[in-house]
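Subject: sequence -> structure tokens, single chain

Hey, anyone have a minute? Need the predicted structure for the following. Not urgent.
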Amino acid sequence: MSSGEKRSIQERIEKGKFYFINGKYEYAIKEFEEALKLSPEDPELLYSLGVALEGTNSFEAAREKYLKVLECSPGHKMAREHLDRLLAK
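Reply:
Had a minute. Here:
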């Protein structure tokens, strides 16, 4: 991955977090999805997308992202907590 791609991913993550904090979940989702195109196995990025999806009540899609996080990073505590909470619903 080139330094330009890394910068692009980081910029998208920062934009996504900004949108998320401001309750603009749909915009956050778009930014995280674009970053995932360049880094599809990034557990933190997948986790952030899952949380944003939860914000739009897209619980099934969020569950899928948390499962993917746990495939990539089995010890990811926050993804496990979010997944467990969703499965309990």
